[in-house]
Every structure is written in structure tokens, then in C-alpha cells.
Amino acid sequence: MKHKLVAVDLDGTLLDASGVAHEADVEALKAVLAEGGHVTIVTGRLYSGTRHVAEELGLEGPVACVDGSHIVSAKTHKTLHAHALKGPRAVALRDAMKESRAATFLFAQDQVVYDPRGTPYLGYVSTWSTSLLVTDESVAHPYWEHDAGVTAVVAVGDYEQIQTAVESIARHIGEHAQVAMFPAKNVTDRWGMIVRAAGGDKGTALAYVAKHYGVDMKEVVAIGDWVNDIPMLKVAGRSFAMGHAPAAVKAEATDELEHTAVSGGGVARAIELAFGVRAKR
To answer: Does residue 118 come out as left (phi exceeding 0), alpha (psi in the -120 to 50 range) or beta?
Structure first.
């Protein structure tokens, strides 16, 4: 095979809106494995929300979670590599969220920690993990000061709340954190924010996985649908954007698929084009 490794995003690519993988796409990925190729998952989800898909595919190698911030062995379930905000930086992030009074979701220890303020927005983050931990006040949870650090923070609030958090993070953490602020999906008049440690994204994670397998980046295929997939689409030798992907995402891919997450079959088509492998029916 010209290509030796395929990296697939989950939500909006392999999985439909209900979180189920299309059978044809699963079989195509298994066909790559059967031919001696490698398959990995590169997703925004925590490992707790990724593990069942890795098991369905029969993966044993590294999978990249939280947009590349956490790389885990699908065989041993142990952390292989992590970008996290630790110590004073994690505390500064906690204080920024406390000051903002936005609904705060703490991603740490492969769990999503939230409090009653976040309950109305739980559907917004629940796809990231199957391990949800409710507490009286998320900004007071001990995980902020855990030695392993904070994998990510997601917040939902009005514009002023999120802007307050963004400005505080810039002052106290600066270039050590990467912050994205955006209108919250499907939540009227609310803004969202995600914060992670700087230095890791889906592109760096894909490079890590390729090195693990001894594969050149020219031999890598990446399939995704959203803005956070751009880093891996740019570094892969061949890349596919799903049919429903925004124009900015399609512009960074070498190929554009007609298939959507609703129709399914996009992953299978990409594998057929790049690997010359068809799923066994």
C-alpha cells in the first residue's frame, strides 16, 4: 500500500449525530488493518468517550484525544503522552474561571467535572466523555491541583463572562495556554470557550502516532470535518474533508468527499481512494 496509516476523526466523520459509527466505515478501517496497515483515532473527545470506538475497531496502538493533548495506548489504556496545564498555571486557570462565573467544565483524570451551573449545557459537552462527575462547585474541585494537571477546560456563558476569562488567562498564563472563544453551538445567546495547554494539536498528535509506527507523514491519510481537524489535514500526505465540512476545512484537505456524517460512507470512500482497499461485504 502506498499509504500505511489512516487517522480518523470521530464526531462528524466516523460517527453520526447519535454517536454511532456507520457499518461500512468500520468495515473499511478493519480492512486496512487486515491488509497490514495501521489505524488511529484523532478526536476532541476524552479517552473515556473514545475507548469503546477503539475497541469496536480492534485497535491496540496509540489514539489521540482532546485534540492531541492526550495520547493513550488502546491496548493498555495508559497515557503515552500528555500536554496539560499544571501547578501555578492550572491554579491561574481555575481562578480565571472563578472570576468569570461562567459554567465551567473541568477535563481532568479522563473525566468531565461540572456543577449545577453547567447542568443546562451538559448536552454540549457530554459527547466528549462517558465519565461525567457532578460536584457542588467545579472551580473548587481538587483536580485543579492534581499532579497530572488539567487536560482542558470548556466554559459556556454570556459574552462578558467568557471575555473576562479569556483576558484573565492571557494575563496570567499567556503563551502557555491556547484559547478559543466562539458562539456556542445550539445554545442561543451564549458563548463557548475551550482552553488547553499550548504545544499540542491534532497535527502534533498525528506526527507522534506516525513516528510510533515508523511511518513517514507522506504515507499518512487523515479524514476529518471540522476546524480542529485542520492541523492533521495539513500534515498528512493525503487528507479528506467530509462533505459537510466548512469551506476553511475543505481548503486545507487534498480531497473533498461528497459523503456526510448523516449518509455515512465517507471514511470507506477515502480508504478506497487512498489505500485501494474495499471493505469485505
So the answer is: alpha
pTM equals 0.92
**pLDDT tens-digit map of 153-196:** 999 999 999 999 999 999 999 999 999 999 987 777 899 999 99
Residue 120 φ then ψ, to 5°: -60, -20
Burial of 281 (0-12, 13-18, 19+ CB in 10 A): exposed
Per the listing, cell 445554545 goes with 187
Distance CA(30)–CA(12), nearest Å, equals 19
* Stretch 10-22: mean pLDDT: 94
- Quick one: how far is CA 57 from the chain centroid? 18
If pLDDT is split at 50, 70 and 90, which confidence band does 205 have? very high
% of the chain beyond a pLDDT of 90: 91
Three state DSSP letters for 41-99: EECCCCHHHCHHHHHHHCCCCEEEEHHHCEEEECCCCCEEEECCECHHHHHHHHHHHHH
**Whether 5 contacts 38, CB under 8 Å:** yes
**Cα 174-175-178 angle, rounded to 5 deg:** 100
Instruction: Give the end-to-end CA distance of the chain in Å, rounded to a whole number.
Output: 21
DSSP-assigned letters across all residues of 169-220: HHHHTGGGEEEEEEEPTT-TT-EEEEEEETT--HHHHHHHHHHHHT--GGGE
Q: What count of Cα atoms within 13 Å lies in the side-chain half-sphere of residue 25?
A: 26
